[in-house]
Amino acid sequence: MSALIFCVGTVLGYVLYLLMKSVKRPANFPPGPDFMPWVGNTIQLRKEARASGGQHLVFEKWSKEYNSNILGLKLGNEYVVVALSYPLVHEVHLSEVYDARPDNFFLRLRTMGTRKGITCTDGQLWQEHRSFAMRQMRHVGYGRTEMEQYIEKEAGSLLSYIDELKEEPVWPGSFLAPSVLNVLWTLTAGRGIGRGDKRLQKLLELLNRRSKVFDICGGVLSQMPWLRYFAPNWTGYNLICQMNQEMHAFFLEAINEHRASITKENAESDLIYAYIREMNGRSDEAENSTFSETQLTMTILDFFIAGSQTTSNTTDLALMMLALNREVQQRVYDEINDNLEKSKIPLNLCNREYFPYTNALIMEVQRYFHITPVTGPRRALRNTTLGGYNIPKNTTVLIGLRTVHMDKAHWGDPECFRPERFIDADGKIFRDEYFMPFGQGRRRCLGDALARACLFSFLSKIVHRFRIELCEEDLPSVVLQPGITLTPKPYKVRFVQRS
After folding, report:
1. 175 versus 225: which is more confidently predicted?
2. Long-range contacts for 87-90 (Cβ within 8 Å, ≥24 apart)?
3. What are phi and psi of 82, to 5 degrees?
4. CB hemisphere CA count around 67 (13 angstroms)
5. What is the pTM for the complete model shown?
6. Does 454 belong to an annotated binding site?
């Protein structure tokens, strides 16, 4: 009997120890709400995010409540720190101690159970493959004239598609994503994807659902992955598995086609050929090489996810703001028309500098809507400090871009949509250090050159040919839908041919 009592007492003591440990904050950890036993702040964050309209708004609320621009949380078993001011965000972006990514269930699930690709990796693998992928993408035209030619061609196809709408009310978000992906897929696989391709439509639908089900922390799948056994649909587990299966089949078809057709002449003509060439060249060291079919698939996935939503969503929001702000739309049109008619400057990507107000409009849309209000996640590679607080090794660090883009002390009137803020006294684009939609440093977004070029080409050509007019039904809302990225609610406009 005494032995039983001892065993029960030992078990209870151990459980009590674990409970106390689960609610204890690390020494000099950033301020934030108290940790709940076992789950930390997971339930509280999800509840308040649903009520307020997004995780980023909860972080801003807690920042005011605890009078701190840095928050310390615990989500499941992970310590999480959120940086919410320019100096802190700038330090996280540029300091090598925050170059790593978390290694959790959600990020591995995103890359089909592996820790491959570029976006969700770190260390030697990340450095080697980021360098290789960007070098090869530049070789086939990324950020250069070849890419601009692809974009100009796709912009022409986009105008033809809008022409076929015959001024019928339409939501731009329903047709923009394929235009961006066609450019990206041409660089990746050497050809575009037909707008009517049913596989493409299925993948875009899955990506859109994914962006709404999860948040930057990965949702409950990251903090409580065991829930997938009891609620696979509610947690989004089935959605991710379906998306992985569809994408893997789509990418594998292209990879196999390239394997069967590779020659010395085309071995560097697109990203897939370049990876296959590199894999073949390292066949003697296959066991130690990081170049594999899985790594190639995950790298394509990274580019696919990056290019499929943020650029098309930003274009969608820019068209919405042009419809809502007729004077801004008129000023963009006048700038384009004056350059074309009076100065005889062609409307192409080589001449972007001659269209400062159009560029300022794009920048203001990115600042005002900040469709990635919280970025990251990063992981602290060692014990360090941030803002005077201790950051334990392996802490997940989130970056609050919205708070930087809406900092009243810096911008003055951040709630006002005003493209002029990005134009200096000489009428040229003003480069504001607080403006960072693509991040900074070594982890800067891979697709920034593609995004900026697509945004300018698509928007300028649409405005030059069409007036964007509101419809009485399905009016736009500037309140976006929360998720991994913020997305506009469906609305409708008319594209009216200019005379």
Report:
1. 175
2. 87/387, 88/386, 88/387, 89/399, 89/400, 89/401, 89/404, 89/436, 90/440
3. -120, 120
4. 0
5. 0.90
6. no
